Amino acid sequence: MDLVDGMRVFVASVETGSFSGAAARLGMSPKLASKYMAELEARLGTQLLQRTTRRLGLTAAGEKLMAQAPDWLDRLEEMTGGLRETHRGLSGTLRLSAPVTFGELQVLSHVRRFRASHPDLVIDLRLSDRFVDLAAEGIDVAIRIGRLGDSALIARLLGRTSLVPVAAGAYLNRAGRPEHLDDLARHICIRDTNMRGDGAWPLTVSGQLHRIAVHGSYLVNSTRMARDLAIEGEGIALCPDYMVQADLDDGRLEQVLPEISGPQLDIHAVYLGQRRLARRTRAFLDFVAQGMAMRTGTP
């Protein structure tokens, strides 16, 4: 057994809580991960993990090793990676997480441009609208939209997006165009259940925030689906500007009540604060921050 492989299994087992989780992260079988762990303990002459039926726990020796092992592995990877990358560019695997629709429409294009300069780099892009556990799932960087909860994660502002009320001309011709904010209450509205709160739409007029209770026949958990239903004339939807700007430009959708503004949401990249960032992670953060700031106009 290579000592580095054993240390990687140890760190991944602690961070994921199981040998199966470590194996999935490292691309090996759970049986091989367990074997590497046993061989590492034999080599060091001490037990590092307490095995239970539900989860792995650290012994006193394991706690001491875990306090240093992640940083040691990161330093080793940075040192050896730096030698390879002098002539070949970044290498290794960069694990990213992003919301589904934003990832498809925005993040993927940045990822492709970034990787074009680093052909030896593997991008593991996982799209999910849930807040993934970065440590448990081995994620290097997660893109999140909206208010961040309290956590030990480090956040870097990438840009901002605004929500825009939109509808198709066919619907507005049939149901009438709202003239005042209160008119939304009598219209069919397509509600996105990913929005936090009580379901009311937070809209601003002349600098004053109003929460408008809306009603409709569709509850969806996808901004793309809300946009598609709006294009089909099913009602008014509140969608991110990155989702509907092309439709507004082409006339497939119209902005409802142009004098009002929807909430502006921050777009952050978050990552674990207790780990040294690998060169590829730092490079991607700088690249995507610059690219999104240019696109959204974030200073």
UniProtKB/TrEMBL annotation:
The keyword Nucleotide-binding does not apply. Residues 1-59 form the HTH lysR-type domain. The keyword Aminoacyl-tRNA synthetase does not apply. It comes from the Bacteria. Keywords: DNA-binding, Transcription, Transcription regulation. Belongs to the LysR transcriptional regulatory family. This is LysR substrate-binding domain-containing protein. It comes from Paracoccus niistensis.
